[in-house]
Write a structure and sequence with these properties.
60 residues
Length: 60
């Protein structure tokens, strides 16, 4: 399932980086922290890889 907004895609990227150990979990905030806890690495990768072109800044 692809991300539905640029904000969602960005949060997934941050959560994925934390899952991979590229950044600390304590650096995560808000949606990215929730995504880290509730999604697998493969789900996060799918969200983070979504093409940003045409996505709204925030989900309505």
């Amino acid at each position: 399932m692809p991300a539905k907004s640029k904000a969602q895609q960005k949060a997934a990227g941050a959560a994925l980086a934390a899952k991979r150990g590229e950044m600390s979990k304590s650096e995560l905030q808000g949606a990215s922290k929730e995504m880290y806890d509730s999604m697998s690495e493969s789900e996060l990768k799918e969200f983070a890889e979504t093409d940003r072109k045409g996505l709204p800044a925030k989900k309505d």
